[in-house]
Amino acid sequence: MTKSKTVLIVAGGKGERMNTDIPKQFLEIHGKPILMHTLDVFQRYDAAIRLILVLPAVQIDFWKELCKKHAFTLSHQIVAGGQNRFQSVKNGLEAVINSGLVAVHDGVRPLVSVETIARCFDAAEMHGTAIPVVDLVESIRQLTGNGSQSVDRNTFKLVQTPQVFDGEMLKKAYEQDFPPLFTDDASVVEAIGIKIHLVEGNRENIKITTKFDLEMAETLLKFEDLKI
Amino acid sequence: MTKSKTVLIVAGGKGERMNTDIPKQFLEIHGKPILMHTLDVFQRYDAAIRLILVLPAVQIDFWKELCKKHAFTLSHQIVAGGQNRFQSVKNGLEAVINSGLVAVHDGVRPLVSVETIARCFDAAEMHGTAIPVVDLVESIRQLTGNGSQSVDRNTFKLVQTPQVFDGEMLKKAYEQDFPPLFTDDASVVEAIGIKIHLVEGNRENIKITTKFDLEMAETLLKFEDLKI
Fold first, then answer.
1. Nearest in space to B7 (alpha carbons), one of B170, B201, B214, B195
2. Which of A162, A200, B45, B216 shows a CA-CA span of 20 to 30 A to B9?
3. What is the model's pLDDT at position A21?
C-alpha cells in the first residue's frame, strides 16, 4: 500500500542577502510570490499530498495577506519556524501526525520538476531515503590549511531538495542535538547511521538566494520546455 | 614594468551536447555569436591584449565567414586546436612568442566581467598564478566506494576562467605528458609543484554547455547591472 505523503516547505529567509525589505520567498516571479510556485508544484505532483509551510512567526500574517491578494486558495498548514533551519524542520515535524513519507523542501526552489519530486518519493518508498543530486559542470578546488588543491569533480554531486525520508526515521534523526555541520536533512539522517539514496534531480531546480538567481528563475519559468 | 598580456580563448565544442548542428561557441546570444562576446570582453579589459583564438581546424573557415557576416573586425590570431583541451592549449601556447602573462579562457564563458579579468591579471603579476573562484551555494556530497557522504561545502570553491599564469611557467607545465585528471590549467600547473593563487570570480561567469545555460546567458546579457 502506498504510504501517505507530506512535504515540509521551509522558508526562513529574512531578505537580508538580497538587499530587499521583502524576504526572498515572497518576491514575485512570473506574476506571483516564489512560495506559491513552490506549493503549486507539489500539488501538481500529487493533489493528495499534505502541504506544511514553515515560516518565521513574524511573517505569517504577511503571508496570509499575500494569499488573499493573489487569491491563492491551495490548502496548506502553516507552522512557525525556529531560530535556525534545524529548529524549523523540527517544528514542522511536530505537525506531522501520520508519518508515512516526509519530504523537506527549500521554499526558494520553485523550479523543482514534478518528475524530480516523483523520483524522490518513489525511491524513498523503496529505500527509506532519497535526495536529488546533479552533476557538477565546473571544476572545484578544495581549500587546505595553507592553500587549495584540485579535486576530481566527477566524485562529487550537487545536492538539491526535496529530500524525502521515512517519516519515523526523520523524526528520530531530528531528536539529535543540533551540530553546526548539519547542512541539509540528509546529513542529519546520515548522522544516525542511515545510508542516503541518491536520485537524479533537475538542473533548473536552483535555490534562489541572490538577484542573479531571481533573474534566472524568471527566465526559466518562461522557458517553454518547463511547461509551468 | 607591466608584463605583456596574452589570452588564449579555447573553443573546442562540436555541438553534440546541445543537440544542435552548430557548435555552441557559435550560437548567438543577444544578436551575435558567443565567441564574439568573449573576445570583446578581453578587449574591453585591455585594448593592447593579444587575443589568440584556438578553434578546431574544421571550424576555422566557418568562423571567418561568421566574422564577415557580423562585421566583426576585432584583431585576433587563429590557431588550430588538437584532439583534446590539453593539446589545444599546447597548440595555442606555441603561438605565444613574448610570454609575459598568459591567460587561458573558455570560449563559452562570455559573461566574465572586466573586473574578474583584471583581478586575475593583477594577482598573476604578483604571484605568478591566479584563477577565479566563487563559493558553492548548494550542498555537495562526495561519492564513495559504496555510497556517498556529506562534505562541508565551505571548504570547496567552484573554479572559473580566465586562469592566468607567468607565460614561461605555463609553457613548462604543458611540457608534461597528458594525464586524464587535468581538468583545468591550474591542475596542469599545480602538477609541476606550483602553488595556485585564488581570486574572486563573478557568479555570472557561467560556462555555456546546455540549452539551459544559453537561456541564462541571454537573460544575463540583458540584465542592466552587467552593462554589456
1. B170
2. B216
3. 72
